[in-house]
Specification:
mainly beta, seven-stranded mixed sheet, four-stranded antiparallel sheet, 56% strand
């Protein structure tokens, strides 16, 4: 089992920045990829960014490219999401997730952290 704990959400003005962090514990050696997802009110949860594999390859949804940066520490137990130039459309609950080796799915999820961007 893997446990994920997010931190860093909050309220920010449009154009501002926030940094989210997610720390994994438990069987962290089983993690291949860590990612961030978000869910806005009345909308489906959507992929935001991920980092994984031995080479730390990153992926982003188009709407956050150039504004968000995902990174992980060398131990691969902490993943950060630096979010710049935030807009009200970024308002959502952000979730950290972990995809284990050999699994097609993100099997582990954090509890979520609220990000609110005021116009």
């Amino acid at each position: 089992q893997v446990q994920l704990v997010e931190s860093g959400g909050g309220l920010v003005q449009a154009g501002g920045s926030l940094r989210l962090s997610c720390t994994a514990s438990g069987r962290t050696e089983s993690i291949h990829t860590m990612g961030w997802f978000r869910q806005a009110p009345g909308k489906d949860r959507e992929f935001v960014a991920s980092v994984g594999g031995t080479d730390g390859r990153t992926y982003y949804r188009d709407s956050v490219k150039g504004r968000f940066t995902i990174s992980r520490d060398n131990a691969k137990t902490t993943v950060n999401l630096q979010m710049n130039s935030l807009t009200p459309e970024d308002t959502a609950v952000f979730y950290c997730a972990a995809l284990p080796l050999g699994s097609p799915n993100y099997d582990y999820w954090g509890q979520g952290t609220q990000v609110t961007v005021a116009s």
